[in-house]
Design brief:
This is Large ribosomal subunit protein uL13. This protein is α/β, with parallel strands linked by helices. It is built from 5 helices and 6 strands.
């Protein structure tokens, strides 16, 4: 087998939109990560950016199972001693409604410079409106 090398100009990029209303947070994140990496394409190569753009709307209305709204914790560290901060899901949603969805998708991407570039292709919005109507995104069911 030979590795496929696709030139950036040859990659066909599409825009996809995912409605997260009443859908489990993890299922939306899995679908978004797959589309961002380009695993659904025949020209997929792990070390190249061949993925698509993904828009997630209604991120604040994503569902969680069981008691995760109170029990699920998110951690941040400033880098200084004693700089650890912990937030539960409800607190983080009140501060930044798109943060849990962004953290879930970022956690499903590999780490490194390529993952940072792929993460820039993700657009998350708390409500139903988004400024990407001109790109004519394709609706994806989860």
């Amino acid at each position: 087998m030979k590795t496929i090398f696709v030139k950036p100009a040859e990659v066909e990029r599409n825009w996809y939109i995912i409605d997260a209303k009443d859908v489990t947070l993890g299922k939306v994140a899995v679908k978004a990560a797959m589309l961002l990496k380009g695993k659904h394409k025949a020209c997929y190569t792990p070390h190249q950016e061949v993925g698509d753009y993904v828009i997630i709307i209604n991120a604040e209305k994503a569902a969680l199972s069981a008691n995760k709204k109170k029990d699920k914790m998110y951690y941040e560290h400033s880098g200084f001693m004693g700089g650890m901060k912990a937030y539960n899901y409800e607190t983080l949603m009140s501060k930044r409604p798109t943060a849990p969805m962004e953290k879930a998708v970022k956690g499903m991407l590999s780490s490194g410079p390529l993952a940072n570039q792929l993460f820039r292709n993700l657009k998350v919005y708390a409500g139903e409106t988004h400024p990407h109507v001109a790109q004519q995104p394709i609706a994806v069911e989860v």
